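A reminder before we start the practical. When you read a complex entry, don't treat the lines as separate problems. The point of joint prediction is that each chain is placed relative to the others, so the output describes one connected object in space. Small molecules and nucleic acid strands, if listed, are placed in the same frame. In the example below there are four entries. Take a minute to note the order of the lines before looking further.
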Amino acid sequence: MRITTICATLALALSFTASVQAQALEPCHKSKWGPDDQAGAINNITSANVMDAVKLVKRGKAVRMGIETNSKTPAFPPRTFAVIVLTPGQEYGGSLGETKTNYNDDIINGWVGIGSQLDGLGHIGIDGVYYNCLKGRDIVTAAGLKKLGIENVPAIATRAVILDMVALTGKDPVPEGTAFNRKEIDAALQRQGNMKINKGDAVIFYTGWTKLIGKDDKRYGSVEPGLGIEGAQYLASLNVSMIGADTWGLEVLPFEDPKKIFYVHQILLPMNGIYILENVNAEEAVKDKVYEGLFTLGPSRITGGVQAIINPIFVY
Amino acid sequence: MRITTICATLALALSFTASVQAQALEPCHKSKWGPDDQAGAINNITSANVMDAVKLVKRGKAVRMGIETNSKTPAFPPRTFAVIVLTPGQEYGGSLGETKTNYNDDIINGWVGIGSQLDGLGHIGIDGVYYNCLKGRDIVTAAGLKKLGIENVPAIATRAVILDMVALTGKDPVPEGTAFNRKEIDAALQRQGNMKINKGDAVIFYTGWTKLIGKDDKRYGSVEPGLGIEGAQYLASLNVSMIGADTWGLEVLPFEDPKKIFYVHQILLPMNGIYILENVNAEEAVKDKVYEGLFTLGPSRITGGVQAIINPIFVY
Amino acid sequence: MRITTICATLALALSFTASVQAQALEPCHKSKWGPDDQAGAINNITSANVMDAVKLVKRGKAVRMGIETNSKTPAFPPRTFAVIVLTPGQEYGGSLGETKTNYNDDIINGWVGIGSQLDGLGHIGIDGVYYNCLKGRDIVTAAGLKKLGIENVPAIATRAVILDMVALTGKDPVPEGTAFNRKEIDAALQRQGNMKINKGDAVIFYTGWTKLIGKDDKRYGSVEPGLGIEGAQYLASLNVSMIGADTWGLEVLPFEDPKKIFYVHQILLPMNGIYILENVNAEEAVKDKVYEGLFTLGPSRITGGVQAIINPIFVY
Amino acid sequence: MRITTICATLALALSFTASVQAQALEPCHKSKWGPDDQAGAINNITSANVMDAVKLVKRGKAVRMGIETNSKTPAFPPRTFAVIVLTPGQEYGGSLGETKTNYNDDIINGWVGIGSQLDGLGHIGIDGVYYNCLKGRDIVTAAGLKKLGIENVPAIATRAVILDMVALTGKDPVPEGTAFNRKEIDAALQRQGNMKINKGDAVIFYTGWTKLIGKDDKRYGSVEPGLGIEGAQYLASLNVSMIGADTWGLEVLPFEDPKKIFYVHQILLPMNGIYILENVNAEEAVKDKVYEGLFTLGPSRITGGVQAIINPIFVY
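Here is the predicted structure of the whole assembly.
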């Protein structure tokens, strides 16, 4: 079944139609920024946010929060990753012109959800319905999302608040199953000088969890400390723009309620348009005892992509 | 010829050895930052640079400079690109738990050098020798670069100077073959309020060239306005950290000297460790008549990668 | 959401469950060869078939029926294909040992359903149910089919009957929309010396359609002459093992009934376990006026694969 | 550096030219079938060979010689393999028309040299020169071989002689480092009823080696029993068309002379145009004590491919 160019009548005939028309869906979550919104809680970031974040830069230090992505990075099955480097046109010697120019080139064969990543608004749904009541069957194609693709994410520059859960708990890494809810979030804020979380902020948990990569990949990848359900609702109520952690999935595992699978993901992405950042590592800032600063992120704009391999820059 | 784990003696036997031992090489270019340096001219960015750049943020506006990457983006042969979206484990219906969690996932099958991209220091060489006198045969493997991989790029936050060559030349886009040398660079700086380029800056040319994408891909991809040889040497003498443009290859094509193929690339990457940014589009800032601001970039840290698909964030 | 090794309890929690439990399904089609059967109508091929086919070899001529597969082969969206050739470990010169051994290696990045292909029994379903009443949700994983994978296809050596529809219709290629039903099949058999189709045979239509590739890809890929619904039922009643044609989809397009989309595929694969061969070209045999012979095929045994890129060998 | 369509003058400028013009090459090996030959020793197969092979079919039994290829198949670094199955257009339910047609589709992301494989004549060279004196720099592009691509392999149907080295040596598997030279080959032939190898034959060694896959991948992939240098020259003198074994690399490892790396590959492919078959398993025929029969193979015709994942059919 291959068709280069489908003529109009055939295209019509070939349209996949829902097999279950009357399927009852849970009430979906409309965006508070309107029916065309694809940006989500990044809408909470105003120019005042940017200016306030910029004022936090005092040392002139910029650090990267991305970890490496490669074929050994532990990943959710069946995700795999490979980079291939080659020297096109230069096999068996050869170079370009009298300048003897050479070049290496590279190819990615891999799932995007490996290493540091941004979960776009098209990543997680509720019974087939995604952010802003967009139905999976309407936006998903094998060649890319028709809406909520990662290319739509606006420029990100805002204040980030880092929550050092290692210092709070006295455990490095914070043990798996440790849920971060309002109590823990507020305690961490208080310990760090009675900080406050503002509308539009990015919140980044530091747990020490990435230290397990390459040492105990099984433990790293099967469980984790992380955001709890009530904590997610709390941060959503504060109108943050995005939430991240140095873990593979942000939310606590084992889940608080074993029947609620990745429910924190649902609270954040489809219900509130809050982006999730995974495997973002604030270790260097934590070592400097810096807990707020300017957070910038420009995910690669792959048209129709669901996620992005990222490396946020934190400036303080 | 497949070997899962090569025993020590076989590995020895299998080492590829140079077939031409005595091949004379051009004198290579040692890094001024020492024999172990893999960061290049990003070393020129100090905390003072960061602080100065931050002070340029006055409107609280953040814009993205990345263009989209997809299967239709015109690309140097044989580069191709595809994203694949799928719903693992949910084929023919199904969701997770009582929360009815669904998810989309995505795969990249593609060459990295498509769309907005950062050329790492391992991209361009001179007769088989790369930045800091590293030999291609020592650092290149099909599974990734052993040195100069894109994962080594430090956090980037510095001042960017945007040079509006459309305004300077009065042509939109600036015609192919228009070389930007010291004269044009200085004229653009002067026109924009007698600006100066500082050590550590990123310099971004705006030419209007990306407007051709999708309209005249052939013209877009076969020629371009861009940096000339003397202009590259001039900017290198100013100790900039990186140079970009809204064109596929930064440097002017047809080349100023047809025998010097991608010589500007060589001046920048292997000779001076200055990074190249391609298809970075400063259009929005130019519309705002803003020519300097805070430029941040965190390329995805794919171990051993040559390039990165990027989306720099410009804050002003 | 990445998990390297899912612990038992998590694995349980993560099981995707059907969201629509009570969905009514059409009666499914059990295999006549038992509940464990994954071979389908290849079961119709007996040792007598093999011996009879071998006796048809009279000239000692072997021809290939495969067409080429590459990035330009017209294909059903979003299918794409690329082969990448590289020289691992030999970049910038180098070879192995005193024998100066070099090697090229190659990578496939592509959809399998391009060029000559075998549709396995896991390719086409009816409302989510596949051959032998296997449910899509039970056998499909993103990492491969758990049942009906292409690795299960038994060795194929049987008699092939070639039906020269160009000679029958006097048109080359046979026009799109020309349906091959019992009348046409019997007429072609009669024209070719009053041939008969036997149980276990492969039936291969020759239409001249592949001549359009590279000349009129749009026509080639949007329509085709081919097997009609009644013709498919007729051949199924004769207990053939597989049916092929030199077209991208075997069955006639526009469809005889526009509401019955790929219904011929359904009659053959899920209902009768009869394999479909696409873009198999019997041109050379037809030129020799040979319409029966020994047909052999060994599809590559990629575990969990749906289809195979093939090149059947026809001996006569 | 991306160019969609390179204009003529630029294409000229971009031609990679040899950096070492005067490099002395070993005398290369011209094909005995002429300067345009790309078929190699398959030229030795005549219609008489086909007829003789067909006469060997006595039981009407067809068996496959291919092993499975998947992500766990042990492979020479950096080769990796993945198949991806998806349901395009049917995510979150849906089917085509009133027939409720569904389909699965599959993608290969992988190196070809994994599992059962045919080494084409473009796989192995001597100091950069391939079969028929074709220079690597003239035929290799990243987008595929310009000559000696796997699409050129003619239809293969010939007699295969299976040599049961397990029975000969009394060891299962035959131990690594066991070289098969003239003495061993002749002994095996004699043990099997004083068989003879004819011009045009395929010769397949059976060693039991694939039994190690999944049990001791390290041993499997780092060493093997196999063809020795003198044995390769002996079989070449008999004008066989191809030689295979149930090992990953056909030739004995550790090599007979550690400085002669894959020299058997060189004797066969570039020097004599004799194809190599790897991981082809004759176990079923050996169990039946059948050592000759009709061997057929149609490698997938991927334009410019180096190798093919294969599944030869053996009929007896």
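Discuss with your neighbour: The interface with chain D takes residues 1, 13-14, 16-20, 23, 71, 78, 80, 82, 84, 86, 88-97, 100, 103, 105, 109, 128, 135-137, 140-142 of chain A (CB under 8 Å). What might explain this?
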